Amino acid sequence: MSSTRTLLLSRHSVLPGFGLALGYTLLYLSLIVLIPLSATFVKAATLGWESFWQIVTAPRVVASLRLTFGASLVAATLNAVFGLLVAWVLARYEFCGKKLIDAFVDLPFALPTAVAGIALTALYAGNGLIGSLLEPQGIKVAFTPIGITVALTFIGLPFVVRTVQPVLEDLEAELEEAAACLGANRLQTFGRVVLPAVAPALLTGFALAFARAVGEYGSVVFIAGNMPMVSEIAPLLIITKLEQYDYAGATAIAVVMLIIAFVLLLAINVLQWWAGRRNAEDN
Amino acid sequence: MAATVSLHVPSVGIAVRSAATTEPAWVRRTLIGLALAFLTLFLFVPLATVFYEALKKGVDVYLNALIEPDALSAIKLTLIAAGIAVPANLVFGVAAAWAIAKFEFRGKSLLITLIDLPCAGSPVIAGLIYVLIFGAQGWCGPWLQAHDVKIVFAVPGIVLATIFVTFPFVARELIPLMQAQGSDEEEAAIVLGASGWQTLWRVTLPNVKWGLLYGVILCNARAMGEFGAVSVVSGHIRGMTNTLPLHVEILYNEYAFAAAFAVASILALLALVTLAAKTFVEWHYGHERQAAKQESSA
Amino acid sequence: MSIEVRNIKKQFGNFQALDDVNLDFPSGELVALLGPSGCGKTTLLRIIAGLEKADSGQVLFHGEDASERHVREREVGFVFQHYALFRHMTVFENIAFGLRVRPRATRPAEAEITRKVGELLDLVQLDWLANRYPAQLSGGQRQRIALARALAVEHKVLLLDEPFGALDAKVRKDLRRWLRRLHDELHITSIFVTHDQEEALEVADRVVLVNRGRVEQVGTPQEVVERPATSFVADFLDLHDHGPAWLIQAKIRHRGQVLWAAAPERRSA
To answer: Which of B120, B172, B227, C122 is least surrounded, with the fewest CB atoms within 10 Å of its CB?
Structure first.
């Protein structure tokens, strides 16, 4: 244990348990996460580049990836706009029931995705409460890409609100007062002073919502209709391939999604570092 | 406009902001209205739908759906999975936070990123990786079959997948909190002659109890509600490897809508309890938490 | 431009922040609002600026009632204690802000904005910082930029809320002398809020002493030192026990004259 300390520690500490805590952390992390995850990459590597490329460029796979990322992008954008609005209203205004609504914003985190999935499907199906209003107008939501976007908007809703809200609450009122004294109207103050200040948080929230939407499965499968080439998302295609014992195919798609997810995670970390650095010096 | 401004009785929150930096009343009302409309459409209506559909066919149908044997065994399996996953990730979270918050070592930020990894990918992938290892054609498949051990399409697989998707929840909450609190109190305890374990039990854990509880609440909600990862490794054997969310799916796909929503309403109630517990904890520790998060991102 | 304050009252909950305040600020003077924290001086400044609304009473600009005018239309420059610089903008863009948000018809051309900002940067002696961000500046530099930003829009009134409150002692002294010189150059009607007796006595043409939402005394630094109107003024300026000793020791010079030295006869009185 003492050798681990001297080997790894860059600063001496009187506290005990470093070897045990770090050892356990690494062991558990490796067993549960790292080794199983690397299995995916090993499996993909045994495929060879050519067959890997063949799998991930098959029309059905490309269509599902395009749908997954397209619908996620639209949903994350919707969440950026309405999430900013909700965060603004919660941070700035007083109204009846605000505390309750504030707590309910986290519902999509707490509600199991399958429950959200069947509830949204029941609502937006042709005979559902909302579907029966939209269908006569020629708008079909359930079992189309629109339905997928609705489900992804639902599950991504808390991310933007929860990243932007604290920033808006902490934004000094003096900045807006200064802008008003200098002759800016509210819209100019919002566009030139408030929005740039919350932009990093907004982008982070957007990226988080997007990343969550890309991997989402439970809330989508019920409302999607799952028609190959039309409304079949990539995670579902992985499951379909697994059920057909096409492990190689499933793994190849998973690897593509993992790489994109990792890039997103990296982007989010860079964003947070950037935002933290800019706000680090207050006075 | 001037009249409405002077007639307006400012409530506590708005009074803090000066007249110069608030919007006219009609703008405020429009924005509040839009936000509420959005939240109603996307949050409250779907939630209400669950209970409405569950009770549409009457209370008898509702109760029957909950006490039939398959539903009961699904409840049992969900409790088992969460009962193993939450304590396992709790112990991990404390160990990881102790190592990361109390010591300086190389590769620390990489470790933090790796801990977050299970939440970055699709839950479906979480299921896939265990099938690749323990499945019939997987790495350990032949060996497991020879020794008659079933992991995938059995309870152990479900537990593993649940642990995977709830992996970072406690650690993620504790690490910034313990970093923000520093090591002064622990060092004082050691100097006073306490052992490492005593320090952990009597100093560190009491200081982070709200954060710990918060992480456990989130971890438990996800563990009981997980669908995608569990779906891949379950095999959907009724009465055997079905958790509550999977049971909902089966009933729904059999067009037993009222029963599906009845089971779903149990999960929705669980979500409401989670929200209530979360809000309660936030009252006690929301401020501390926000400060810790900000410090860690800065 | 002259400013008059008539019968201003303001209450926060049960707390009477301002109780029937009447004041005249003649055109071109530099006036200090001096008092302990919580006395209502900042509230008064914010009411004059239009950032806060009085419960009753009037604010007159150049004899005209401006009470109902929005802060945008009052055309006052305001300098905040914590600078309130826009941290995502460079120094240049901060100063240019007030010019860029003007309606298209009155907005100056880009070349004019560049010239104007350059001029102001010269005035505050920080022309070499144009492309920096506020986070890269020292406190004193930030406050000078905040002042330049307030001056850029050429309003006829300048209000400063504890402008040197967040700075350390040395910078504070330098900056307040610099402000005095700047005022002598520009002659904008200026009001600044402070709780620092030295600062008020050294810099201001006139001092307004405020306590518990009421005006205790108005006068030149010399007047308030020589003839404190109330026991609060004498207390706050510390004239009772130590007499003028601290004034002599502090060597407070008002426009080059040591304050107490001008009235030695008070010692016997």
So the answer is: C122
Q: What is the CA radius of gyration of chain A?
A: 23
Fold of A48-282: MetI-like fold (1.10.3720)
Question: Nearest 5°: CA angle at A90, between A87 and A92?
Answer: 100
pTM: 0.86
Chains near A (3 or more Cβ pairs under 8 Å) = B, C
Looking at residue A253, what DSSP letter applies? H
Q: Residue C157 in contact with residue C2, Cβ under 8 Å? A: no
| Helices then strands, each counted (H, E), chain C | 10, 12
Interface of B with C in 7-66 (CB under 8 A): 15, 18-20
Task: Among B111, B131, B160, select the one facing A242 at the smallest CB separation.
Answer: B131
Q: What residues of chain B, 67 to 86, have a C-beta less than 8 Å from chain A?
A: none
Strands ordered across the beta sheet of C206-211: C76-79, C157-161, C189-194, C30-34, C206-211, C214-219
Q: Sort out which chain B residues have CB atoms less than 8 A from A252's CB and list them.
A: none
Q: Give me the interface pTM, i.e. the ipTM.
A: 0.87
Which of the other chains make 3 or more beta carbon contacts under 8 angstroms with chain C? Answer: A, B
Local confidence pLDDT in tens for the 283 residues of chain A: 445 555 667 667 778 888 899 999 999 999 999 988 888 888 888 888 888 899 889 999 999 999 999 999 999 999 999 999 999 999 999 999 999 999 999 999 999 999 999 999 999 998 888 989 998 888 888 889 999 999 999 999 999 999 999 999 888 888 999 999 998 988 999 999 999 999 988 988 998 899 899 989 999 999 988 888 888 999 999 989 988 888 888 999 988 888 887 787 788 778 777 766 665 544 3
Beta bridge partners of C56: C9
Please, what is the end-to-end C-alpha distance for chain A in angstroms?
44
Structural domain boundaries of chain A?
A: 17-46, 48-282
* Residues from chain C contacting residue A281 (CB–CB below 8 Å): 135
Residues paired with residue C34 on neighbouring β-strands, in sequence order:
C194, C209
State whether B19 and C52 contact (CB < 8 Å): yes
